[in-house]
Amino acid sequence: MTKTGNRSSSAVEDYLERIQELIETKGYARVVDIAGSLGISQASVTNMVKRLDAEGFVRHEKYRGLVLTEEGESIAKAIGKRHRILTDFLNLLGVASAEVERDVEGMEHHLSADSLEAIESLCRELSSNPELLLRIKRSERESK
Amino acid sequence: MTKTGNRSSSAVEDYLERIQELIETKGYARVVDIAGSLGISQASVTNMVKRLDAEGFVRHEKYRGLVLTEEGESIAKAIGKRHRILTDFLNLLGVASAEVERDVEGMEHHLSADSLEAIESLCRELSSNPELLLRIKRSERESK
DNA sequence: TAAATAAATTAGCCAAGGCTAATTTTCATG
DNA sequence: CATGAAAATTAGCCTTGGCTAATTTATTTA
Fold first, then answer.
1. Other residues' Cβ atoms within 10 Å of the Cβ of residue B99
2. Contact B82, B108 (CB under 8 A)
3. CB of A106 within 8 Å of any CB in chain B?
4. For the domain that residue A35 is a member of, what is the CATH number?
């Protein structure tokens, strides 16, 4: 039985998400890579990595990189999915991309599965309904 | 010229929002009321109130209550509006109310004005388009 | 108006997550 | 294979925003 209810902090989620991205894009995620990618100090990353390791989210081989455990990966995947759905959503609405990034990064840790799914369905509908999107964007412009 | 760019922390926003609600509903917001309403200790509230006062968001009269300054009120109003828009949005999508509350409280501090406006417009469209809402809800049920 | 109660404050603590500076460990290369 | 560079870690510090327990201050009420 996989432990499930264990809510992780935003910070933990951010780290796991980023670690996975790094592994996907560069093939590895060392302390120094994570620090660079998150824009924080190596020392801070070392600390957090200790914690992630202790809590069973990653396995760490010095100078070699991190590997996500099954549990770590499942969290990373979930948060990655949230990220994609929310990005999609705001993009569909025509929000400027710099803002999309910031907003999504802020929001992604605070959505229940239900809300996520609802937004996902909404995106499906919006995607297949360009006129609707046009109306929404028009209505935005007007209300400004 | 009103100072505008000064981003406040989530905690500050939460306090101001709650203070305004209390003033609206009970007519006053004392330390003890805020503590009760936010579910935290009076001591913590005293601390934060000192800060809010020092930063010019509230004026405090002991045993009498807090008053929002112009700046405090404008922040409170803005965050209140975010709260309403997001609540609306998730309600429209049919998310269960307990979750709506939690999600909104988490998200409301992380949305740019642009995203907010886009979601607002979207809500307008959704409200006037019950079939669309039905389709979305159906599609949710199916994807479960 | 004095005593009881309620509100507020103070002092001292904690955890999360950041930071810098200094040090250690490993890697890569001449 | 020695050494310089890169990566990692350690030590010690900071801020935010919580907490409890003890104390003070104001308000209410008998």
1. 16
2. yes
3. yes
4. 1.10.10.10
Task: Assess whether B87 and B125 both reside in one domain.
Answer: yes
Amino acid identity at B101: E
Mutate to test the interface with A, among B89, B99, B122 (most CBs of A within 10 A): B122
Which nucleotide's C1' sits nearest to the alpha carbon of B41?
D19
How many Å apart are CA A9 and CA B79, to the nearest integer?
23
Are B140 and A117 inside 8 Å of each other by CB? yes
- Domain of residue B98, CATH code: 1.10.60.10
Per-residue pLDDT 10s for chain A (144 aa) are 433 446 789 999 999 999 999 999 999 999 999 999 999 999 999 999 999 999 999 999 999 999 999 999 999 999 999 999 999 999 999 999 999 999 999 999 999 999 999 999 999 999 999 988 998 888 877 776
How many domains in chain A? 2
Whether B90 and B139 share a structural domain: yes
CA–CA gap between residue B29 and residue B132 (Å, rounded) = 42
Q: Is residue B116 less than 8 Å (CB to CB) from chain A?
A: no
Q: Name the A residues in 68-97 with CB < 8 Å from any B CB.
A: 90, 93-96
| B70-108 pLDDT per residue, tens | 999 999 999 999 999 999 999 999 999 999 999 999 999
Collect all residues of chain B within an 8 Å Cβ-Cβ radius of residue A121: 93, 136-137, 139-140, 143
User: pLDDT at position B3, please?
Assistant: 38
- pLDDT, residue A60, reads 93
* Full residue range of the structural domain in which residue B53 is found: 10-68
Say how many C-beta atoms besides its own lie within 10 A of residue A141's C-beta.
11
C-beta separation of A144 from B117 below 8 A: yes
* CA–C1' gap, A23 and C24, in angstroms: 27
B104 min Cα distance to partner chain A (Å): 8
